[in-house]
Amino acid sequence: MLGNQRVLNLPGISVSVDEMVAALREVAGDVVAKRIVWQPDARVEKIVGSWPERWDTARAEQLGARGDRNFADVIRSYIADEGIQVR
């Protein structure tokens, strides 16, 4: 099935921090989104800045792997998995 290449880039989504906050606001409401504290962290910026914006996931998709449709779905899944009440 995988042949000689056993490494796959799994399907995912690329979103900005602003898009993440908008999705949080959509799912959990403004009160929850207002809890965010904007504080720069050079270590985190360096790590995240080294990540690629896009990657090729065609091989994983051909094998049937699917990613989340959008970041709001990621948040909804986390809430469901953790049994969190947001409203």
Q: What does this protein look like?
A:
This protein is extended. α1 packs across α5. The protein is built from five helices and no strands. It has 87 residues and is mainly α. It has one domain.
Which features does this protein show?
extended; single chain; 5 helices; 87 residues; mainly alpha
Brief overview:
The chain has 5 helices and no strands. The chain has 87 residues and is an all-alpha fold.
Rounded to the nearest angstrom, the distance between the terminal CA atoms is 45 Å
Number of helices: 5
Give the beta-strand count: 0
Average of per-residue pLDDT values: 91
Strand proportion: under 5%
Task: Give the total of domains.
Answer: 1
How would you characterize the largest beta sheet? none
Helix content: 40-55%
Rg of Cα set: 16 Å
Secondary structure elements and pairings:
Layout: H1 17-28, H2 30-33, H3 42-49, H4 58-62, H5 71-82
Helix pairs in contact: 1-5
